C-alpha cells in the first residue's frame, strides 16, 4: 500500500488557494469631522486595505480641547481596537478610542468616545516633537497621566494630504500604544503616519531630587 503523501495534500491545497479568485475589495465608510462621530460615503478600499476603522480622538493642547472622528480603510494588521492615551509634551495630551472591523460598511455608526484621565501617575518620560526630522533628543521630561505606563519613541513619515514629511516624537503612552509596529500606516484624525521606528519601554519613576548644596561635595 502506498500511504498518501501529506506533501501532495499541501501542494493540492496551495494550488487551490492560488487559483481562487481574489477576494472582492472591502468598502468602508470614510469621513472626518469634529464631534463624537461622522458620516460619509462608502468607499471601495485599496486592495491591500482589508479592514475598516473608526477613530475618535480627544486632544488637549494647553486649554484647547477638541474631539474629532475619522473613518477610513486600513490594513487589518496595522489596526488596533481599543483605547490609547499619549502625552507628548506638558501641553499635549491625546486620548483615542478605535475600532477595527472587516465587513462591508462595518464602520458605519458610532463608538464610545475615549475617557480622558489627566491625573498624573508618578511616572515620567523623555519628551520631544520634531517635524522634518526623524530623530529628536528628548531632553525635556513629561509627566505621565492616567493609564500611561510606557515611554514611546516613534518616528517616520507623516502624510498630510498634500505632502509627506518626516516626524519624530517621544513621550508617555498607555501600553496599548506598544501595539504599533515598524512599517505600520497609522491613521490619526488628520494625518497618516508611517512608522520607521516604534520603540516602547516601561516608564520610570523620576529620580529623587538632589537637594541644593548636596551636589558640590565631590568636586
Ligand atoms: C476631561 O477631563 C476634564 C477634567 O479632568 C473634564 O472637565 C472634561 O469634561 C473631560 N472631557 C471630556 C471630553 O471627557
Ligand atoms: C486616573 O488615573 C490615575 C492614575 O493612573 C488612577 O489612579 C485613577 O484611578 C484613574 N481614574 C479613573 C477614573 O480611571
UniProtKB/TrEMBL annotation:
Occurrences of domain Phospholipase A2 inhibitor N-terminal (ranges):
27-107
- What sequence ranges are listed for the domain UPAR/Ly6? 121-186
The membrane spanning regions, by residue number, are none
Query: One Pfam family name from the record?
Result: PLA2_inh
- Major site of localization recorded for this protein: secreted
Q: Point out the gene that encodes the protein.
A: PINLYP
Name of the featured protein? Phospholipase A2 inhibitor and LY6/PLAUR domain containing
Q: Where in the cell is it found?
A: Secreted
Domain of life from the UniProt record = Eukaryota
Q: Which family does it belong to?
A: Belongs to the CNF-like-inhibitor family.
Q: GO terms for CC?
A: extracellular region
Record flagged with keyword Repressor: no
Keywords assigned by UniProt, alphabetized: Disulfide bond, Secreted, Signal
Signal peptide positions (record):
1-25
Q: What is a single molecular function from GO for this protein?
A: phospholipase inhibitor activity
What is the originating organism of this protein? Monodelphis domestica
Amino acid at each position: 500500500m502506498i500511504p498518501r503523501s501529506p506533501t501532495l495534500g499541501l501542494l493540492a491545497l496551495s494550488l487551490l488557494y492560488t487559483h481562487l479568485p481574489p477576494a472582492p475589495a472591502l468598502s468602508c465608510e470614510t469621513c472626518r469631522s469634529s464631534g463624537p462621530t461622522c458620516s460619509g460615503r462608502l468607499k471601495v478600499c485599496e486592495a491591500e486595505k482589508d479592514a475598516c476603522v473608526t477613530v475618535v480622538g480627544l486632544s488637549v493642547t494647553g486649554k484647547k480641547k477638541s474631539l474629532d472622528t475619522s473613518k477610513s480603510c486600513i490594513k487589518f494588521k496595522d489596526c488596533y481596537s481599543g483605547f490609547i492615551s499619549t502625552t507628548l509634551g506638558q501641553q499635549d495630551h491625546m486620548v483615542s478610542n478605535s475600532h477595527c472591523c472587516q465587513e462591508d460598511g462595518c464602520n458605519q455608526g458610532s463608538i464610545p468616545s475615549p475617557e480622558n484621565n489627566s491625573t498624573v501617575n508618578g511616572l515620567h518620560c523623555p519628551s520631544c516633537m520634531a517635524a522634518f526630522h526623524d530623530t529628536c533628543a528628548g531632553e525635556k521630561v513629561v509627566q505621565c497621566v492616567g493609564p500611561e505606563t510606557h515611554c514611546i519613541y516613534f518616528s517616520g513619515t507623516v502624510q498630510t494630504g498634500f505632502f509627506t514629511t518626516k516626524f519624530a516624537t517621544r513621550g508617555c503612552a498607555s501600553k496599548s500604544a506598544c501595539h504599533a509596529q515598524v512599517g505600520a500606516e497609522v491613521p490619526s484624525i488628520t494625518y497618516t503616519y508611517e512608522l520607521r521606528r516604534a520603540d516602547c519601554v516601561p516608564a520610570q519613576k523620576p529620580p529623587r531630587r538632589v537637594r541644593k548644596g548636596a551636589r558640590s561635595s565631590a568636586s
